Amino acid sequence: MSKFAVATLFFTVFISCLTVLKAQEASTPSSFVKPLIGTNGEGNTYPGAVAPFGMIQLSPDTEDVLWETASGYEYSDSSIIAFSLTHFSGTGIPDLGDIRFMPQIGKPWLVQGPKSNPDSGYRSAYSHKNEMASAGYYSVLLDDNNVKVECTAAERAGMFRFTFPKTDSASILVDLSKSLRWNTIWSNIRVVNDSTIIGFHAVNGWAKERYVFFTAVFSKPFDSYSIMSDGKRVFYNGYRFRSSSEASGKNLQFIANYLTSNQEAILVKVSVSSVSTENAMQNLAASIKGWEFEQILANTRKAWDRELGKIEIKGSQEEKETFYSALYHAFLTPILYQDVDGRYRGLDQNIHKAEGFTNHAIFSLWDTYRATHPLFCLLQPKRNADMINSMLAHYDQSVDHLLPVWSLCGNETWCMIGYHAVPVIVDAYLKGIKGFDAERAYQAVKKTAMNPDYDNVMTYAKLGWVPCDKENEAVSKSLEYAHDDFCIAQMAKSLGKTEDYDYFMKRAKSYKNLFDPTLGLMRGKDSRGNWRTPFSTHEYVEGGDFTEGTSWQYSWYVPQDIGGLIELHGGKKPFLQKLDSLFTFNDNTSSNVDDIQGRLGEYWHGNEPSHHIIFLYDFAGEPWKTQELVHKIIRTQYGNKPNSLSGNDDCGQMSAWYLFNAMGFYPVCPGTNYYAIGSPVIPEAYIKLDNGGIFTMKANNLSEKNIYIQEVTLNGKKWNKPYFFYSDLKNGGVLLFTMGPKPNKKWGTEVNFGELETSR
Amino acid sequence: MSKFAVATLFFTVFISCLTVLKAQEASTPSSFVKPLIGTNGEGNTYPGAVAPFGMIQLSPDTEDVLWETASGYEYSDSSIIAFSLTHFSGTGIPDLGDIRFMPQIGKPWLVQGPKSNPDSGYRSAYSHKNEMASAGYYSVLLDDNNVKVECTAAERAGMFRFTFPKTDSASILVDLSKSLRWNTIWSNIRVVNDSTIIGFHAVNGWAKERYVFFTAVFSKPFDSYSIMSDGKRVFYNGYRFRSSSEASGKNLQFIANYLTSNQEAILVKVSVSSVSTENAMQNLAASIKGWEFEQILANTRKAWDRELGKIEIKGSQEEKETFYSALYHAFLTPILYQDVDGRYRGLDQNIHKAEGFTNHAIFSLWDTYRATHPLFCLLQPKRNADMINSMLAHYDQSVDHLLPVWSLCGNETWCMIGYHAVPVIVDAYLKGIKGFDAERAYQAVKKTAMNPDYDNVMTYAKLGWVPCDKENEAVSKSLEYAHDDFCIAQMAKSLGKTEDYDYFMKRAKSYKNLFDPTLGLMRGKDSRGNWRTPFSTHEYVEGGDFTEGTSWQYSWYVPQDIGGLIELHGGKKPFLQKLDSLFTFNDNTSSNVDDIQGRLGEYWHGNEPSHHIIFLYDFAGEPWKTQELVHKIIRTQYGNKPNSLSGNDDCGQMSAWYLFNAMGFYPVCPGTNYYAIGSPVIPEAYIKLDNGGIFTMKANNLSEKNIYIQEVTLNGKKWNKPYFFYSDLKNGGVLLFTMGPKPNKKWGTEVNFGELETSR
């Protein structure tokens, strides 16, 4: 076979795929999606194929140990271990990466081999020039064996296309023994016919007990196959029968062997289930009928266009790529987590059927309550209700009578702090999102906030703060509880529960107890009321009073009572002075949190506690500083490159921050109905609401230099407040900015704190 | 507390229980059951509480490592480890022993402690004088802490009653980390309220992957509780929440703590499921409503009386105890293996629902096809059909397209040889047992016997023997396949499949190929047709040509063609000479099989390959020798003592052998409709058939000396054949023996081999 022949064939395959993509590309939103954004550095996204909120994510893994490569793929790695079926988008902790597939040529490797020597395992070198990632599609050429791998995915199933050179020793390895970072507890596999395998593995990882059942149907019957257990073939040995078609164990692999002709494509349809292999097979049958790779891709692209088309924007290619990729990343998690028959494995490890809703999983709530779920209120109201119902099902299944904290496919990880299912539920409730039972939700919200065992919540309720001698991260917890409690109060009020309103509003003021006026910062207090001493304002202490940061990031966390916080500082002037210093001061003592980047002084955009801070200028009379900072952050920490995300995307929160801000506003306090106005970075956006309304944002005169708001009209009226309300956009409307190169310091100074508390 | 007070209280409790038992005892069959029979030595039965064919078996474990204590309990042990929920009856390999319960006083032990020092763990000394076992009931006083433990069981749930002395440190340990001999893969536990726990463990043991879900409801709310993981308490540590009410891991234990008053009884209701904890809870709710220990016991005793009452006998106390205990042991396995909703975990690890039948599990087919299932044809026809449907479901779920060989709760162990689901199915089919689809069963039977991968079956089919150079246990396999094939032929003939009949009858003659006329014994042959050389007739070789024995036991295995075997020997005279020598010769070279006892020369009654041999005398003109040997074996190897079983009861086969023979006949060739006549050891028996007919057996003049048949009348006619037919008893009838002290060598010499093949 000449090199020319190979090249020609590759070109043909490449073209056939491109044809499909090109046909749709013209100007559809999905054509701007660059899944590789965030794969280099801290973003922790993955480049693989996935449908919107899809249950299965076919994606390459380059790393399976390092904490900082939680999605399995790091752009700067030069070899791919394999392609697995499930992936996190943007988390800070690795897990998933279930059930690996890897094509090989020659004697199949059973070990993956280290990065330093990809040739000593099934791992293969690859080059970004032979890699292509788009919405619903990923392909790469494996340099080690000249096999092209393509992935696409439907809702509950996906397809690999492995294009082999001519060889008598092609094989496809399915490795059940691995996941990202953690341990396989157990697995089994069965070869049910000449081209189909089923199996499962259970993983004890970040999720303490997680079951992934799968099936894989190969387009070509195996020439031969073997199951390997602990590296040895499982087969009948002439004594008493032992099946060569099934095995159980901790370390199982399956190898399908093939003789291939030149550029022969072998397709593998795959699906997963949390319930059973039977359900995995049903999911596959329901999701993918035939063998048309291009058709599956085309359908998924349509689905992406439908979802991404909910916002139409004008802007440059780079802006569109940045914007639609952010929207794509925001629309990945929480994932669909129920089989085609509605069943899923719940928190109690029993199999439940979702009745009247569609169950979702992977709730990174400490992150996503801030902007992701508020974004869903606008763009995914039905799905947001599904997510709330999923959280209520979790609550019902919880022996601890708690809503999810950081839930992961039928597991609670107890990761991060607070009870931030609350703001998600309350925000949706206050915005009139239909589809969940408000009274039931309220009971869950209240019960969660009254749990006598959870993280000293009830001590906080009694004392007014989480005592730092009893509990780690006591200041961060106190502050976040206070906001959550504010949310409960709002819902209580709306439901006519006046006593509860008063009770939780009292708790919502707890932040005041931790403000040290001598420092102008929040500070730990012990159970006797004494300040944390000694107290280093800047140094991060692991297991100290602050969560992934210092008092500098956390001292601003009073979204529910910004006026109150300003008062604590003694008024706007000292408040602004302090706030200004946040963006300039940095003594670099926080060495233990070097995975949090995007730093402007002590403002750390790469992590969520900072996400609302720049909008505080709005409420202290200097909205032009908010405007400046929006542009600064977006210019330096977002973009269309693999390294464009400064921090973990955290299941879409970093992206959701961008999306709101690109359009000029931000939900600074979930659980209220107002948005703070920032400064738009794209010239036009049209939000197509579910009710048919369109909310239009236009920024006249916007340019790289014209980043300051000169004036605003909202629904035809001049608007001088640095915020507006959900009611101003929920049926559609027009937000018109006029931009200029210099701050208009008079604009946006009209603040009425009284109207910010929704239910008041 | 005085010793006197304790004694009085114990007496009261003891009396209350005795009252229940006494009320029923008068003369009900269950009152004669002594579950301890077979617990001392090789019998491997368990003494605990169980309902007929019950899904749960609450029983004490004294040993969890040794192979030879497969049921967990050895009578000669002087300490009890704990009480677990599941047990084998009579197997040769340990497994089960799932989910241990153990009451303690003082600081709870988390380790069991060795037999040599029961005080160094939760294991407790006990004495047989404080132990009581009867049908559905077991109790013992634990000497270490003076706690009385009682167990009773319904179909899918059981109850413990722990009677404590007055103490402030009572506790009940639930240990999920152990089973009999094998490894826990994983487990989880949840405390769902103040008195209920649920959980599961998965075991990789004899069954490669077995899941036991359970629930336990305590009659008294826990004063406090803890979950231990790897010996450390699982609880919230002040950092971020970790539930103290649930855990997952490999080594989990739960401890319920109580302050108890003197002689306070704490009851624990328990249930199991192969499906889920939800199903375990449903099973419990359906099986046991309230807290009346005595009522549960009374119901189970009624159930036992109903089942055991299917045979009424006359005889001495010892005879009744021996007989009804054997019937009890025969009615334990295969166990009920489906939840109250009909669901169970199948061979493919998917959850199946049994439609139109009741699923059963634990098929020790190499043993039970011989006499246990033939006994079920008479006494449990409906349940036998359920068992056959269970085997067909297994077949449907088998990737290897095989009926069960030795199946264990959703697992195939591949233990022992042959395809003996076949004689079970064919025997039931030929006897007209209703309730399964004959054509479907035939397809499964045939497919199983034609499997190209299973133990060289197809090589045997081609060559006429299993070649000993290709396969271990080649002679035993050849001989047993030949009988199985005979059975298939009978079913084929009955279904009008003449070609199949001819084909399998040809295979059924394969035994002839391995008869070495120079030795008068069966001998291995290699794939080129050469005899095994060198060949030791008596020495057992592990992995040699014979299964758990030597040529001496196996050379008689031609139940399907006894006439043909006699011919091979050159006629009755040389045949009888050889057969006589079996019972006298023993060179003790078979040292590797010392767990098989009950030896009369080279006849080893303690293992199944010998079970049909003594009836060969019937067909060679010397039925008086059969008669003599029946009495000799029953006198020396059965009885009412813990050590009365000479070999593994093997899920009822040893007991079923006794039951038939006690009544004077035996199904020497399953898959035919005749019974060989032996010699009754009880004077009267009345078999109450499902169709309302009663089959009466009377043995006039029977005594310890009068063991020889003088004459027989069958249904009123003089009977001189040493066998009779299923048709003679199936609608009821009378078999009347007249016994005497000397053989009547003329009786029973009328043999017509032609009429023995059923379908002929």
Q: What fold name goes in the CATH topology slot of the largest domain in chain A?
A: GH92 mannosidase fold
Gyration radius of chain A (Cα, Å) is: 26 Å
Low confidence ranges of chain A: 1-15
Helix content of chain A: 25-40%
Given helix and strand content, the structural type of chain A is: alpha+beta
In round numbers, the mean pLDDT of chain A is 95
The span between the termini of chain A is: 77 Å
- The count of DSSP E runs of length 2 or more, i.e. the number of strands of chain A, is 36
The CATH architecture of the largest domain in chain A: 2-Layer Sandwich
Shape of chain A: globular
Number of helices of chain A: 19
Q: Tell me the greatest interface.
A: A-B, 49 and 49 residues
Task: State the gist of this model.
Chain A is of the alpha+beta class. Helices cover 28% and strands 24% of the residues of chain A.
